[in-house]
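re: that chain from earlier
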Amino acid sequence: MENGFSVFHALILLVLVFVLLIPYVKIIKKAGYSSWWVLTLFIPLVNFIMLWVFAFARWPLEDRADGRGMEKVF
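^ sequence. v structure.
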């Protein structure tokens, strides 16, 4: 038995990353932000800060719905 990081562990990690990234990207895009913001998930401490920022900030989608953006969404 090997005591280290095996190919099996790497495969599990890769699957978990994709399982977590896809919903985050969809949520961020629906909020009106660039999907590149998902990269903040990989920076320790910044990921928790950005979670709170995204939760309580006014989303660009809300601005567009209120008529403050380029067009109304609804």
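Residues 7-31 form the longest helix (25 residues).
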